[in-house]
Write a structure and sequence with these properties.
5 strands; 5-stranded mixed β-sheet; alpha+beta
Length: about 110
């Protein structure tokens, strides 16, 4: 199991466990975090934008160019922003700290 620490927009932190191989977006949604994921992981929106703790960011596989392009459109994007639909969990991510931004921009207009 992989432990994840989610910080909501209001600052509350919850720790959850997820199986290796799960997608961060699915885990966050299953635990009530408001990540829309409008495009269902197709990198056509930025509604699953999350901010990874700086100390944890280098543990992630690098973002592909398509993900970087979508992050350019995310509200409040930072140097450690990622799309949760593009992060697949494995043992190296145990203890990952993820902040949920307070707002999103749905690029599909829904």
């Amino acid at each position: 199991m992989v432990r994840l620490n989610f910080q909501s927009a209001d600052g509350n932190v919850t720790t959850v466990e997820a199986a290796e191989g799960e997608r961060l977006l699915d885990v966050a949604q299953a635990h009530g975090h408001p990540l829309e994921g409008t495009c269902e992981g197709q990198m056509a929106c930025s509604t699953c934008h999350v901010i990874i703790a700086p100390d944890d960011f280098d543990r992630l596989k690098p973002a592909r160019e398509e993900e970087e392009d979508m992050l350019d459109l995310a509200l409040g994007a930072t140097r450690t922003s990622r799309l949760a639909c593009q992060i697949w969990l494995d043992a190296t991510l145990d203890g990952l700290r993820v902040r949920i931004p307070g707002e999103t921009r749905n690029m599909q207009g829904r």
